[in-house]
Write a structure and sequence with these properties.
35 strands; seven-stranded mixed sheet; single chain
Amino acid sequence: MANETQNFLNNAGLGFNDVKYNFINFLKNQAEFSDYNLEGSNITVLLDILAYNTSQQGFYNTMVANEMFIDRATKRSSVVSLAKLLGYTPSTKKASKAKVLVTVTAANLPSSGVLTRGSVFTGSINNNEYSFTNTDAYAFYPYTFNSTSDPDAEENGEIVSYACGPVELSQGALNTISYNVESYDQIFAVPDTNADKTSIRVFVMNSVTDTTGVNIPWFLSNDLTSLKETSKIFFLEENSYGQLILKFGDGVLGKKLETGNIVIIEYLSTAGSEANNIGSSDTDLRRSFVYDGDETLEVLTIEASNSGGDKESSSSIRRNAVRNYTSRERAVTVNDYEGLLLGSFNDNAAVRCWGGEENDPPYYGKVFVSVRPIGQTFISSSEKTNLITNILKSKNIVGMDVVVVDPEVLYIHANVAGFYDKDATNDTSTSISKKIRDSLIIYFRKNLVEFGDSVFAQDVETSVKSVSSALRAVDVSFSLERRIIPTLGVSERVAIDFQNALHHPHDGHQSIVKTNSFYIATGSGSHYIEDDGSGKLILKKKQGGTITTANSNYGTIDYTTGKLVITALKVSGFIGDQSYIKFVVEPSISNVFTARNTILEFDSLDSDALAIALTQVQTQRVVGGSGSVITNPSNSGSTTTNPSSY
């Protein structure tokens, strides 16, 4: 008779071996199999089959259960399907946009006088070429005139060239597909997974023989409450293959399609974020954009390509679907604003929102929004307008104004002191310094992304020490930098907030403020600013090798809050190719924090951003009578490296 107390299997593990030996232990406790060699007999084959089947079934059931919940699903198709239940459509690739001016000589002006919609341009960056096109037509207008003594030359002079623009270019190729309508509830797919859903235009012709409607656009529906039975709208979803699918109304919510109609879908196939920053380094001698097929048209970059985005990731869909469902397409709380903005940027941006009451100084009745696209510092003026007019205006509370502000950049300088054992490596101090520099660039690029990111010296030291086993000790300290672009020749008040307490051990301590040199008046020598160690800023003057104090009360500095104020800063020019004043200070501790719309950034192109000093130490081993080993480092010199030499 079977042992009643051992009549149940242990369900603790689902691994193959766990299940098999669970079977064996179970059978060993049954009287019917007391004389079996369960590990060595042929019954072990049956146990293997049972264990394999049980293990696979358990794994399958676990995966199925996971895929049923949006926060645990791993397959993108599952995440998309669950997001659909929350009324959320994932973001597709988003075309990068640029603004250009197209010019042509009067002799080569197109006969139509228009830059037609869908013209093809090529933009190049890093030896890669991308197609751009204009989704609107632009008329040419007189641009330059011949030289003449006539004061009204622009009205009466001979026209030399024409221009159109600013022309907005969208990266990608315009594609068109059409479908015959066979039933009113038919689903229409865009087979290209690189399609930008924001570029889709839809037209519906009555039939092959009746082109009525070919120029009447249908619009994407975002609000069911305003739909009528005659509304020419369509709905967008993503299917399990990552393709966009279009659905139309049923005669109650939206106009119903008729059998025999022709649906025409136009869209941009884009490369997404790959095409960003084209034209950012253009000069008079180097142009990134050219007009295809006609060398007589010259293209001048006004605004480099920006705002291109990649397809939304599964993790982003999880976050934004829940945020979208919570906000229900309205902007009331800070989380609502952030959710709407992140969704519009495919989650390829850092977003910070705060109420006017939290601003410094407070502005009641306003909501402040700051966006930093990944890989960039600022958004374009057109993107700011789009955020307010197309994304937030219809969802915002009546009477609440939205203000889009640029991120404030707080630059971080790293000062690294390292001690290395030359006997533990074949690397020279120069090669170790280069490894440290490269590792810090990667570290800061990875960790300085979001608003509110902080930097801790201990984390940086750990990262630096990992680059070489010869490094015995590493000490890292930071300096902070703000850059001010003054209006030349204008006296203005400047307030700078470092948002961190500054180093001030006692009144009268040496200056912790450093600036680059600038001119206040032509021929009066250069000037720079420092502090007196007691809360005042001093304007210093350098002329002919002599340094004097030009103003001993030029502004104030609060070491506790990290705020500097200059009541009347007037700059007439800069030295060399500088275009700003940089204020560099020492924080009180080796950790850096930020608030509101401030982002931390490490400028690897700035020679002052990184200082590395390596000291060589050599171990001396003294063996005592007991065989003990004593390690005694001795300083054998130090080297300081300049990162700009790499």
